[in-house]
Specification:
Blueprint: E1 12-13, E2 21-26, H1 46-63, E3 66-71, H2 80-83, H3 92-97, E4 103-104, H4 114-127, E5 137-140, E6 147-149, E7 154-158, E8 165-172, E9 182-184, H5 187-192, H6 194-199, E10 206-212, H7 218-230, E11 236-240, E12 246-252, E13 255-260, E14 266-273, E15 292-299, H8 302-309, H9 319-334, E16 340-344, H10 361-373, E17 384-389, E18 400-403, H11 404-410, E19 416-424, H12 425-428, H13 431-437, H14 440-443, H15 456-459, E20 477-478, E21 517-522, E22 531-537, H16 541-550, E23 561-567, H17 568-579
Parallel strand pairs: 2-3, 3-4, 8-10, 10-11, 11-13, 17-22
Antiparallel strand pairs: 1-20, 2-14, 5-6, 5-9, 7-8, 12-13, 14-15, 16-18, 17-21, 19-22, 19-23
Helix pairs in contact: 1-9, 11-17
Bound molecules: ligand L45E5XJ5.
Domain Putative 5'-nucleotidase C-terminal: 347-545
Pfam families: NadN_nucleosid_C
Keywords: Signal
Length: 584
């Protein structure tokens, strides 16, 4: 762990079940490879995860089992370790590349910016030779303009210890917000391609489909149907991502899916038993059984790693893992990520508090931050409505130091304020309601509501306000000898297989859904103005233009002008410096 990481707190634990074939999954790590430095339960870093994977591989080898590592994309954007360098990711590609991942694919974040997509092609793909799969993604060679596969379309291999024959795919959901140096082919179209049709006819013991794709979305439904249509009982193991939740899916008795949350909070664990390996007799115990699947969502901290490996502080770390932790420490130091801009007077929550409320980060943004930031000297005195999507904000602010790192954790995107001058107030005043309600006007333009909020909203469709629960430890083995522990707040996942998936027993957290966008009305006169400047984050331009059309206005992209030179992230840092003192 990083030197400033808080020590994890002992909690009641549930053990891992090992099978023939076992998996560790990461997804949506978004640059959090230093771990969480303000939350003890997620405080292990990428170096610790390397040690953990290594120790688990040793155990698998000793017992003749197999272990595969999976990563399903969105490795970048969301943490100073990636975002604070110039060029971005100067340190993270090498750090991430140290993990021995068996099957890896791309997320949408690797593709928003052309430079990030280029680095994916020149750095990450070669860091994982033969392991990186791009089943529905092409890259456009900047020198020749030629459209080429980002990486190989699928992978055939046999596992190390049991020789299980695997055919593996790596998909991205039907994403359309990519820069123009990549081409994402819709999954349904890819399924029709000859190479895919040939691949699903391969003689194999199992299929593994990894993807930056939600487990219950249309893309995996189509892939499941296509593979199962040709292979009536071959095991299919899916790994998902994108919606940032801990999740599982049972497609049928021989097909399951796992998704390992977000931000290096969770390491996903899946185990399979009952795979029929061609030419090998099954063990007596599983001869007649169909596939059996288990899952765990492992909290990313050292106490948990010790517990699952049966090792301790001195026997757990590997030299490789320790070296990677040291590289992360050095990179953080070089980037000045601990530099304190100001001290947050209290916690501000994205989803743990309702909007609007005193504890809501969006209320703070709307009432305190935007009115001060959205100010252009030459338009002084012009009343304005400032809009931002809520998905632009990615993480809570905790009471205490708001550092250079926090700035990127909260606001990682290269988003700038733009504006349309002198918009009739009658139209401008309707935009928030229109964008928040969504509906046909946006759908007709190919715009989805879910693209404006944080990805958690894809899966969480109503507020979660837990009842106070009575703790029942059941058969779990307590860690640290606690008998009636004060549970640490955290994930209390309820998935398709039940409520016992989390490796750590937590007390539950609330989740309040928030609107797609918020607005601030700035320098408004007492009397309703006739015209206002409509200022907004550039990311939401298509929604603003579609909504204006609906109100009867005829604005085009050409009417959208730059408003402030600095990006929102820099402006936010400046606001913190001006408004919050150094007394934490
Ligand atoms: N420039 C951007 C890019 C993305 N967003 C928000 O992020 C959401 C996607 O997040 P994932 O981690 O799932 O890929 C997207 O829906 C937007 O809300 C943004 O605000 N600005």
């Amino acid at each position: 762990a990083q030197p400033s990481a808080p020590s994890p707190v002992a909690a009641p634990m549930r053990p891992l079940t090992w099978g023939q074939l076992n998996f560790l999954q990461t997804t949506d790590t978004h640059g959090w490879h230093a771990g969480h430095l303000q939350e003890p339960q997620y405080s292990a870093d990428w170096g610790d995860y390397i040690s953990f994977a290594n120790r688990m591989r040793e155990k698998a080898d000793k017992e003749g089992r197999d272990l595969l590592l999976i990563d399903t994309g969105d490795r970048i954007e969301g943490n100073g370790l990636y975002d604070a360098s110039n060029p971005k990711g100067q340190y993270t590609y090498d750090i991430f590349g140290q993990q021995d991942i068996d099957i890896i694919c791309t997320g949408n974040h690797e593709l928003y910016q052309a430079d990030a997509a280029a680095r994916e092609y020149t750095n990450t793909v070669p860091n994982f030779p033969g392991k990186y799969i791009a089943s529905n993604l092409d890259y456009i060679n900047p020198k020749t303009g030629e459209q080429i596969p980002m990486a190989q379309r699928y992978r055939k291999f046999t596992t190390k210890n049991q020789g299980i024959r695997v055919v593996a795919f790596g998909f991205l959901f039907d994403f359309s917000g990519n820069a123009n140096n990549t081409v994402v082919q819709p999954v349904e179209k890819t399924i029709q391609e000859q190479w895919f049709q040939d691949a699903i006819r391969e003689d194999t013991d199992m299929f593994i489909v990894i993807g930056h794709v939600t487990l219950h979305g249309p893309e995996y439904k189509a892939l499941y149907k296509a593979i199962r249509g040709r292979n009536w009982d071959t095991p299919i193991q899916f790994f998902g991502g994108h919606s940032h939740i801990r999740d599982v899916a049972k497609y049928d008795a021989n097909a399951y899916g796992l998704q390992a949350g977000r931000y290096m909070e969770t390491i996903g664990w899946a185990s399979l038993d009952g795979i029929r390996i061609k030419g090998k007799q099954l063990e007596k115990t599983s001869e007649s059984a169909s596939l059996s699947f288990t899952r765990r969502y492992i909290d990313n901290n050292l106490l948990g790693y010790y517990y699952h490996t049966g090792l301790d502080e001195s026997s757990f770390p590997t030299e490789h893992g320790t070296n990677v932790s040291a590289s992360i420490r050095d990179a953080r130091k070089t980037l000045g990520l601990d530099h304190n801009y100001g001290c947050a007077p209290k916690d501000f929550w994205l989803n743990r508090a309702p909007f609007p409320s005193n504890d809501s980060l969006f209320t703070w943004l709307q009432d305190s931050v935007l009115p001060e930031l959205v100010h252009l000297p030459e338009r002084k005195g012009v009343p304005r409505i400032a809009l931002t999507n809520t998905g632009a904000m990615r993480f809570d602010i905790f009471k205490g130091a708001f550092t250079r790192d926090t700035t990127y954790i909260v606001s990682p995107f290269i988003s700038k304020f733009v504006y349309i001058k002198d918009v009739p107030y009658v139209s401008a005043s309707q935009l928030l309601r229109l964008i928040n309600n969504g509906g046909p006007v946006f759908e007709a333009a190919g715009l989805q509501k879910s693209q404006l909020t944080s990805p958690e909203h894809i899966a969480i469709k109503s507020d979660i306000i837990p009842e106070p629960e009575v703790y029942n430890p059941g058969p779990q083995s307590p860690l640290g000898g606690l008998s009636t522990p004060d549970l640490v707040p955290g994930y209390t996942t309820k998935d398709e297989l039940g409520d016992d998936g989390d490796d750590t027993v937590h007390s539950p957290l609330t989740f309040y859904r928030v609107p797609n966008c918020i607005e601030s009305r700035i320098e408004f006169p007492e009397k309703t103005p006739e015209k206002v400047d409509l200022v907004f984050i550039d990311f939401i331009t298509p929604w603003v233009l579609a909504a204006l059309t609906f109100t009867g206005e005829k604005y085009t992209k050409g009417d959208v002008l730059p408003y402030l030179k600095d990006g929102f992230t820099e402006l936010l840092a400046e606001w913190i410096k001006q408004n919050w003192g150094q007394d934490c």
